[in-house]
Amino acid sequence: MDNVPPILPDGRLGESFIAPVFEEEAFLSPGTFSSADEYAANPRFLELQEELRCVLFSAVASLDPSTYTSPPSEPLEEATGARSSHQSLDFTRVSVPKIRLIHYLKIGSPNVHRTSTNSTSRAILVFIFLFWRNAFSARQTERKACLDKSYDSLELYQESIRLLGPCLQAKDPNVLATVCILAVMELMSVSPRDWRRHVEGCAALFDSFNVNGLSGGHLQAVFWCYARMELCGAIISNGAESTVLPLEKWVPSMPEAATPTERDNMIRDSFCQKGVVSPDMHANWAVYLCAKTCDLSCRQTRYVELGEIIDDPRPFTERWTCLWNELQYWLEKRPPAMLPVKTTGIGGGQIFPEILFAHWAAISGNQLYHAACIIMLDMKPLEHIVPPSRPHYSSIWHARRVCGISLTNPHSGNLINAIQPLYIAGKLLSHHSEHVEVARLFKIVEETTGWGALWRLKDLERAWGYEPGEILSAI
């Protein structure tokens, strides 16, 4: 799979039986059902979602060691019934005009490498990857242009699912990349509050293939694309739920005899790699720590409100302090590329600090650090003494820096990742001018990336005490 279009490490662009090969069927235009922004109410899209879930969980069942009795997987070209990369796997099956398909390819896969003609299976995998990538690119285009009569993405999504069954039959873990892209497309198209339903299939496959955030290679990068979707959902749940894939499966297995503190230290060392941390991995580490923060919040909420037993014997104060120290250790160990190249204060008409980063990984990584600190401070034990001179113990200090980072670094991939951190920070802001500036940010995210963001602004309007739509009208 060396020639598969790369997924960047920050996730930019996310009984025994075999998954069945889908029967061929004509594409059903949803024109009479809904507009491009109403996928959640589109009957055909809902059918396809259920179809995809069935395929993924069928594949997981076939990968279960307790039920898997088949011989080693057959080559992908045999599983798909294709003798070459151009037989049966072509874009002529869909009615989308070639000019638009080329456009989706250009915006979705600018760094595709030439596929080796000596490996038919690789050629097929690359081709299928492009098909799924096209579905995502088409959906992004439709949302950015507010196209209410374009259904290219739905047709490509349908064809993508048809191709998925044979790939899963081949039991090739590289299919994780395309499954993640379909999950990202679903999250872009429907209510993010139903996030668990869209990542459960991915979580089950990562678990079955034993792929985690430190597996190495391109599958490690695919995992962190998935992890960002998990983190987004955990934040949306507001302490009610943790990640679908348990955090202990985000990293390699640790010795059973190790104490919780020893396991924390081993995981930290795995990310640090003996003190040498790349910007990409440092950003992924921030994702893990922020997810760990959400997990701590969820565990404590369930313990206090539901009386659930926590599998960590340490008192909450100790667990909180250890995680807080991990976050500060992350900050202290940032490699040079993760440091800002310019920082200014506020005042003189400047509402939020200007914090400029030269490396894309630094933008989201630092923003997630500040978001995690806000969540941590919100559940700080009363007995924990706060040093009066440390700004790191000020939630509002972190909140303003979350906003300042997005304003100073309008990188599209990081703007998508910023939606939930901006919501966390925005709840702490009290001045009208701050509210207007945050509203502008959410509007920029939606208009420039095609990713739904204004639903989170509506949540903030309620938190701030405005009437629905009032803050948007002030922009």
Polypeptide structure, described:
With 475 residues, the protein is mainly α. It folds into two domains: 194 residues, no CATH class; 221 residues. It has 17 helices and two strands. The chain has a two-stranded antiparallel ribbon with strand order 1-2. Helix 1 packs parallel to helix 7, helix 8 packs parallel to helix 10 and helix 12 packs parallel to helix 15. The longest helix has 28 residues. The radius of gyration is 23 Å and the shape is globular. 43% of the residues are buried.
Could you give a quick summary of the protein structure above?
With 475 residues, the protein is mainly alpha-helical.
Characteristic key phrases:
475 residues, mainly alpha, 2 domains, two-stranded antiparallel sheet, disordered N terminus, C6 transcription factor, Fun_TF, nucleus, DNA-binding transcription factor activity
Ordered list of secondary-structure elements with their pairings:
Blueprint (H helix, E strand, L loop, with lengths): L42 H21 L12 H4 L18 H11 L11 H25 L7 H18 L5 H15 L5 H15 L7 H20 L23 H13 L6 H28 L9 H17 L9 E2 L11 E2 L3 H19 L16 H14 L3 H6 L1 H8 L5 H18 L4 H11 L11
Helix pairs in contact: 1-5, 1-7, 3-4, 4-5, 4-6, 6-7, 6-8, 7-8, 8-10, 10-11, 10-12, 11-12, 12-13, 12-15, 13-15, 15-17, 16-17
Structural class: mainly alpha
Count of domains? 2
Mean pLDDT: 77
Number of helices: 17
Annotation, overall tally of beta strands: 2
Following the backbone from N to C, one meets helices and strands in this order, namely HHHHHHHHHHHEEHHHHHH
Q: Which bin fits the share of residues in helices? A: 55-70%
Spatial sequence of strands, sheet with the most strands: 1-2
Which residues sit in consecutive blocks of at least 5 with pLDDT less than 50?
Answer: 1-37, 65-89, 109-124
Terminal-residue CA separation? 47 Å
Described by strand count, sense and barrel closure, the largest sheet is: 2 strands, antiparallel
Which overall shape is indicated by the principal axes computed on the Cα atoms?
globular
Q: What value does the Rg take, in angstroms?
A: 23 Å
Strand content: under 5%
